[in-house]
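Each record in this resource describes a single protein on a pair of labelled lines. The shape at a given residue is found from the number at the same position. The record below illustrates this layout:

***
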Amino acid sequence: MSLIVQKFGGSSVGTPERIVRVARRIAAAKRAGQDVVVVVSAMGDATDDLVALAAAVAPEARRRHPREMDMLLTAGERIAMALVAMAVREQGVEALSFTGSQAAIITDELHTGAHIQEIRAERVREELARGRVVIVAGFQGVSRKREITTLGRGGSDTTAVALAVALGAERCDVYTDVDGVFTADPRRVPSARRLDWIDASEMVELATAGAQVMHPRAVEIGARYGMPIRVRSSFRDDDDEGTLITGRDPMQPMEGLVLTGLASDRGYARLTLRGLPATMEAATRVLDAYGAAGLSLDMVTVSEQGDGLSQLELTLKEEAVQEGEAVAQRLVHELGALGVDTRSGLTRIALVGSGMHDAVGVYAQEFAALCHAGVAVHTVSSSAISIQVLVDSEQETIALQALHDAFELSEVRP
């Protein structure tokens, strides 16, 4: 008998009616002859409500009381798992619910942002052998010191894929409020096309760049262990297959340009340190200072200004810009630089695909499309499978549509 893991997000279990709908889907899979493990998120806005409660009694609760925050936040998934288990049993299918610790999801000791170390799934396997559906609370685990932990952003996705790997599942089905993975956000680009499949490495890049369908941590686990992930809508009653995240389609050419899609992420700022000494030592001191301050940099660009001076552009999230400016001002003084400029209200847009760095004219085509649309590009960076640009947030939709059209992403890939 094949095993599948099904994950249902907060919107999918957001009301009693939706929970009953989910239960019917789970029961149907079980009656079709499959073993089923289900991972659930907290209902709707339950996690946000719990965070607000914590803030009402303890400002900066996550920083000052991380252990108690984990104890509090895991309550949301525990409520959802119990309700889903009840609803499945009402469908005439035996089911029971497990917390992360009962399912033996072992994590490190970092509260509010733990990482899974291993899953000892013996108890889950025992209940599956008894013919039951097992409902597991996502987003949570237990450390080797027997402390309850949470996995941070994307934790339920991560739980589901990790469980699928540990149990040797056929695949992991992630049910959400969208029909799959699209070539761009269809709310911003109406012509965006849903992908039937996507390479896992490209999905990681899209997720990291702002696509919110799945968290990159979960996709990375799937890619590492060869676990197929299918993204489907929990609001469709048909057998729509959604998008399969897997290895590269064998029907695709072994080499050549294959563009997958676009993703965007708002809320960035750029700091420009002018008149730095044009030496590796100066650039290293800047980067070391930001690392010591615990500030994550997204893009780093160095350019020569002449006369032995250079300019260093640093991109970081807007919520960290005040602290980032303070570090920059200190470095300007220490290194004898000319000054620092700040530009906020920026969006990072990533064009993702394979073979783009060997293909002639991709950069030129991208810049021509943005120029023709009147979009100013402030910073450029690239990885092996993406080209990323920083634009004003007010021009995000214009830029996405221009690039989507220029690279004909609405067309089905050959």
Remarks:
- The longest strand covers residues 258-277.
